[in-house]
Design a protein that fits this description.
Elements: H1 31-43, H2 50-60, E1 90-97, H3 110-115, E2 122-130, E3 137-142, E4 147-150, E5 153-154, E6 161-162, E7 165-169, H4 173-190, E8 196-200, H5 202-211, E9 215-219, E10 223-225, E11 232-234, E12 237-241, H6 243-251, H7 261-281, H8 288-300, E13 302-304, H9 311-319, E14 329-333, E15 336-339, E16 342-348, H10 350-361, E17 366-367, E18 376-377, H11 417-423, E19 425-426, E20 433-435, E21 441-442
Parallel strand pairs: 1-8, 3-14, 9-21, 17-19
Antiparallel strand pairs: 1-2, 2-3, 4-7, 5-6, 8-13, 9-12, 10-11, 14-20, 15-16, 18-21
Helix pairs in contact: 1-8, 1-9, 2-8, 5-6, 5-8
């Protein structure tokens, strides 16, 4: 066994990778986009567009990946007629691959293909947990530089086993053993059984941001990054980003926070919360054209598990969120601190990770007590707690003048929201993140 398995397409040694230092082009992608696409199928199913829309979306879905449970975990059912009946609600994993294979356009150059081809690495990985009563939701972002144990993984054809390792970089799971291996690794870390999963590519991010007419984000200071494609040069204040610019915003490391992957995660959460507010409160749900476009953009650019190839299942997942409410949609970063064996890597912060894992397994709503992370700040907060400086680099200072976050229509009160808040488990303050209701601003890397 090797500690740091090489990619399928070329060898990589640990000395060639530095946390927050070497240029990287990575996908930024969100589980919430897939769910918004699922909602689209529900709403376009009315009127003359319905038959064609559902047929077209269904025929765009790629052949599914058969997910296999880890030893000791419940078997993963392959035909799930009723999502709300699944014990513990919904667990869905979305892996964003950095592979440039078959994308065309700007990714056709030799430089881009050399950066990553084949299966690629899961450089953005998010786990969506919807509570069984559908009154709360948690999206967990896993740092790509997290050093973890990767278990033995079934091969893509299910006929053999790929040896695991006790110490490997989390984002190598996809290139090591495909989607099954990413699911198995997250299952081992959290204790959850994950019945739903998908891999999404770069083009999916661009297409879906375009389908909703762009996403308006708040920047506390300018975001400039000439290492993304296209380069970013966004002014402080309110910015509506769409297409390839949205992709660059989500991929950017050097333009946000402290230039680390941890800063990029909190920047992605700024985007995700703004997207959630637009979908819930900004009229997307009442616009069949945008909804159909979002659904089509999603399925055109994902490789789903077999459990997600039926559009009805996507609809059922979407319906589980319709009454959740923005305050009960929580985005968190899996807690991490610097790896004592490698300052360019991070390891799970065990006590905080245990608290988060236990809440997810017990299907309990959670409450944040920490900061919004390295790449974001809440302009409505009286003070911004300093991020944990022991997790992969020093944080950037807060910009002296923070623009007001873009105004969003206030959502209607959610039935049972106060009950959910009363039973929510406070997470340790070392866990960073935000709710969808928080209108946060991205901090540029000055």
């Amino acid at each position: 066994m090797t500690d740091l398995p090489r990619r399928h397409q070329r060898a990589r040694g640990p000395e060639g990778v530095r946390h927050g230092r070497l240029p990287r082009r990575r996908a930024g992608v969100a589980a919430l986009k897939l769910l918004a696409a699922a909602v689209a199928i529900v709403f376009v199913s009315v009127g003359s567009i319905a038959a064609y829309a559902v047929w077209d979306v269904a025929h765009s879905i790629k052949t599914g990946v058969h997910l296999q449970a880890l030893p000791g975990h419940s078997a993963i059912p392959q035909d799930i007629p009723n999502v709300s009946a699944i014990p513990g609600g919904v667990n869905l994993l979305l892996a964003g691959t950095d592979s440039r294979s078959n994308l065309g356009g700007v990714y056709s150059s030799a430089t881009e293909q050399d950066a990553s081809s084949g299966a690629g690495n899961n450089d953005v990985t998010m786990l969506l947990h919807i509570a069984q009563d559908h009154k709360s939701m948690v999206v967990v972002s896993f740092p790509r530089d997290l050093m973890v144990a990767i278990p033995d993984c079934p091969s893509a054809d299910g006929k053999s086993t790929i040896d695991g390792t006790s110490y490997a970089q989390f984002n190598t799971a996809l290139s090591r053993g495909g989607l099954n291996c990413v699911v198995a690794t997250v299952s081992k870390m959290t204790g959850l059984t994950i019945p739903f999963a998908a891999v999404i590519n770069f083009n999916g991010v661009s297409a879906m941001s375009s389908a909703v007419g762009g996403v308006t984000v708040c920047l506390a200071s300018p975001v400039i990054d000439d290492k993304t494609n296209p380069p970013l040069d966004l002014p402080a204040g309110s910015n509506t980003i769409v297409g390839d610019v949205a992709l660059s915003f989500l991929r950017s490391r050097y333009g946000v926070g402290d230039g680390s992957d941890l800063g990029r995660i909190s920047n992605q959460q700024v985007f995700l919360s703004a997207l959630a507010r637009k979908v819930v409160s900004g009229g997307v749900l009442s616009n069949p054209v945008q909804l159909y476009g979002l659904a089509k953009a999603a399925v055109d650019n994902i490789t789903p598990s077999e459990t997600l190839t039926n559009p009805t299942t996507l609809v059922q997942i979407a319906l589980a969120l319709k009454d959740t409410g923005l305050d009960n949609m929580v985005f968190v970063q899996y807690p991490a601190v610097s790896d004592p064996d490698n300052p360019n890597r991070v390891v799970p912060q065990e006590s905080a990770a245990d608290a988060l894992d236990q809440a997810l397994v017990a299907d309990q709503p959670v409450k944040l007590t920490g900061s919004t992370g390295r790449g974001a700040e809440d302009p409505t907060a009286t003070a911004s707690p300093a991020p944990d400086a022991g997790a992969g680099g020093a944080p950037s200072p807060v910009a002296p003048a923070t623009p007001a976050a873009p105004a969003t229509p206030a959502p209607a009160a959610t039935p049972g929201a106060s009950d959910t808040a009363a039973t929510a488990v406070p997470l340790p303050d070392t866990i960073t993140g935000q709710t969808a209701a928080q209108q946060t601003c991205t901090k540029g890397n000055d």
